[in-house]
Model the fold of this input.
Amino acid sequence: MKLDGRRESSHVEDRRRMSGGSAAGLGLGGIALIALITFMMGGNIGDVVLNVQNAGGIGSMTEQTSYEPTAENEALAKFSRQILASTEDVWTSYFERNGIGEYRNPTLVLYTGTTSTSCGTGQAAMGPFYCSADEKLYIDLSFFSTMRQQLGADGDFAYAYVIAHEVGHHVQNLLGTLGQAHSQMAKMSQTNANRVSVRIELQADFYAGVWAHYENSMFDSIEDGDLMEAINCASVIGDDYLQKKAQGYAVEESFTHGTAAQRMKWLKKGMQTGDIRQGNTFELSDSQL
Done:
């Protein structure tokens, strides 16, 4: 992905020197993988803690007073600021061009270990996430190492897809979709709530694809192989792939993010169409997703 000379977003909070430390025993990569699999199987943060404890890897979170980012970490921070800037350019233009209204920029929070959010305590074990209450994206950059080492998902465009997916949730929030979906989920059984969650996540994948569509048309930045990096990433974070990797089989009722095939499908559809009107996953039956 060609980013030389591209601007970096100023809507970034760098808390890496203020965050809590990693848990003792397991490294952040191992914790993040356990968390990723737990969430994909329909678990919550309490389940994550229990699973990490069972793996013998959780200790107390300690305040970091002398943390210094590595050169790799700094490069990833710059990259993340550039991708966030790209999403700002793309979505601001898209909102204006289509009469949607003003695009309100989210804030990207870079942290290490743990950090406070308006949605509760954020932990590296949760992976990247979006909090609609404060309109911030949270990411511990060690997640990209986990993607590469534990899931085999590597490449700058794969990393960009992760950020663009979280920005996709912000777009959902601005359009009112996210709040409506969460309200519905609160009144449903866990199985039905999971089905709504899948639609939320697949639409965020679609919006990530829409971003990629206009990122390339505006900046001619996507190179040969970039699209396959993102598609490969989407495939290895599908619920069915992760559950089979963790336990040898998949339980469809527990899916919360969609299958590998579904995630690839919606990412590619967004890339191809660049039209958010074609990404209403909430109107479709399970078989149509």
Remarks:
- The longest strand covers residues 107-110.
